[in-house]
Fold this sequence. Notes:
alpha+beta; 2 domains; seven-stranded mixed sheet; Jelly Rolls; two-stranded antiparallel ribbon; single chain; 3 helices; elongated
Amino acid sequence: MNRDTIFIVLVLFSIVTTFWYLKTTNTPLLSQPFFEVTNEVVVMPLSYEVMGEIAEIPLFLAIADTYPERVQGLSGQKSLPSEHGLLFLFESEGLHSIWMKDMLFPIDVLWFDQNKRVIFVYENFSPESFPTSVGSPTPSIMVLELPAGFVQKHGIKIGDSISF
């Protein structure tokens, strides 16, 4: 047997014995799941690591800047904490719309132009509205989803700016 064959046999032996041990001891491969499955919807945990402000109101933001993150959005999430939001960042300005697929709670939605100014507001967007989508009538480059009632509570209006 050459060295490569021995190496392959040892790797395969290690893999088989590891799985045998895990099965016989009922040890899970991961102590905590990386994601949660709810009604066949894979729910990825959101990380609110970015501090931002809208109209001088502090916000904890999760960022959705890839296509899969934007498609997932808040779908399947159980709630959106107060003073938290999901900010969708797009590569270019366009007519970006939002829908409520697999949503479990209503939200307020804000659209922003390249100057980070609010150009369109849609309040209390309900999960029951699916499959209807809503979008700004003018091109936007960012969309922010917030807990329902945030816009009214804080007096957010067209022209307010966001920073992050």
